[in-house]
Amino acid sequence: MKKIGILFGKERTFPEAFVERINSKKIKGIKAEPVHIEKVMQGEDCGYTVIVDRISQDVPFYRAFLKNAALCGTAVINNPFWWSADEKFFNNCLMTKIGVAVPKTVILPSYELPTDTAHESFSNLSYPLDWGSIFNYVGFPAYMKPFAGGGWKNVYKLTDREDFFTKHAETGELVMMLQEEIIFEEYYRCYCIGGKHVRIMSYEPRNPHHLRYVADFKPSKEKIKMMTDIVLKINEYLGYDFNTVELALRDGVPYAIDFCNPAPDADLASVGEENFEWVVETAATYAIEKAKEHKAGKDNLTWGEYLRKSINKGSL
Question: Is the pLDDT of residue 58 over 90?
């Protein structure tokens, strides 16, 4: 029996629907269940053919469990090794090399010294930074957000340099990005599952959280094709099996704003019934596909084009 597991935290609607959907298909030799962990022994198989990861970004114990599972042949969605290494600033840097438009962005050292460091730890860092060049490059208004993490936590909108210095002082040990504001005419949140299935959803990030999917942008067929190609390209290079990409259209050009969301919101109350149905069915179908393709004792992870080319000493 091939077991498909889902590892999750507080969420309920998507994990329960995902398990129910797979089991309702009654595919011989395949069943789904919530992951159950009693012990984690080094180098030992966890018993799952496929695991969909929805929570390890917040629980280091789970991330270690998933790496061990992957080493023993489990197809983990998403690849826990890449997810551990990835962050939003690198994503932006990569996009500049593969021809995807992104806002002008810089990374900033934390306002406070990281724990267990001293001023001498930063001997290679200029003080002060070249703030004039930084502000001229990004411009104002601008956004400041953590270079890793998500969920709209610690995101600031900044009006000018004085506003920046005031709010940067609130960020403690967080490493932040300063990013150009894209004044957009249309905005979309796009699911990508399996590197091939794309769902483009109208989205309004300026609304309260529970109303962000209450938007009615109407993209043409040409825009849908253009955005779909961008979403597929981003996920091809990053190697995520399950991710969302946010695109802001300015003067008809899609800018990738946030595209490192490997455990994206899939709650019924947030995304709405039609989007929820698509995510549940597509994720279930893809997990079944991965289970059928699974090769025992082999590497069953997805690796992005960036890493594959790097290993082969290719160039972007």
Answer: yes
